[in-house]
Amino acid sequence: MKRILSFFAFLMIAFSSFAQEDGVEMADALRSNGKIYVVVTVLMVIFIGIVLYLVRIDRKLSKLESGQKK
Amino acid sequence: MKKNWWKIVAVALVAYTILGGFLFDVPRRAILHESIRNVHFHVCMWFAMLFTMTAALVFGIRYLLKFRTEDDIYASEAMNISILFSALGVITGSVWAKFTWSEWPLLSLKGWWVDDVKLNGSAICMLVFLAYLVLRGAIDEEQKSARIAAVYSIFAYVIMIVLLLILPRLTDSLHPGNGGNPGFSQYDLDSRMRIVFYPAIIGWTLLGVWMMQLRVRIKKLERKTEL
Lengths: 70, 227
Fold this sequence. Notes:
Strand content of chain B: under 5%
Mean pLDDT of chain B: 88
Distance between the termini of chain B: 30 Å
Structural class of chain B: mainly alpha
Order of helices and strands of chain A: HHH
Shape of chain A: flat
Number of domains of chain B: 1
Structural class of chain A: mainly alpha
Shape of chain B: globular
Largest sheet of chain B: none
Largest sheet of chain A: none
Mean pLDDT of chain A: 74
Radius of gyration of chain B: 19 Å
Number of strands of chain A: 0
Oligomer: heterodimer
Strand content of chain A: under 5%
Radius of gyration of chain A: 21 Å
Distance between the termini of chain A: 34 Å
Order of helices and strands of chain B: HHHHHHH
Helix content of chain A: over 70%
Number of helices of chain B: 7
Number of strands of chain B: 0
């Protein structure tokens, strides 16, 4: 666990700001209006749903496997 | 639960990818605009595929050395998840290419397939993978099918490297990193993207391994109930 944590710590250290290239159109307005958070939330809901589905299959399989051993 | 810690890591990393991939600052590039965020999703499919395909190769070779059925189950399920990742990679690549390389208007129904070595190569690669399943299904005798499938997976691995990593570099390709184009690693993928991109690769790969493990366990249960 310590190793994983320190790995992410290093990744965060690698984070540094760069000078922006001017004149390229980006979805800044979308971000400033806060609407992108809606998309991220929807995606997270979908992802959590898929993960819960996977967890349920995993649990069911574990039950079946423990039944097999007896 | 102690054995399943890596599944939690997988979910956490992919969740972090979705959050960071959409919300963190990205480099400003013409043509790409916000679509540069696809790096955390489309490119990761291919990286995850490379890892699962390597697993298929290793277990295939192990099967050929020891002839243990367990290795064959792992090899075939690693192959299955590689096919899923390559299909997702081809489809997402096609979508990304339409909206960045294609000359057709954005709303046009045309332009979903840009004639490019990288796209054609990845499509052929997917077909080579699919042929693995056909080959397995075509041979009834279990040991024979496992042996031939393992030999075929070695061939498929070599062909994959040629189609995806070598051929596109020899000719003209629009794909970043090929045909004299700079890869994202040179300047686009700066440290702002790396803090999402590298965890993303690990996260997607682990998620794939989880799905693979579920199918392996189903197959093992099936074998036990058959006997």
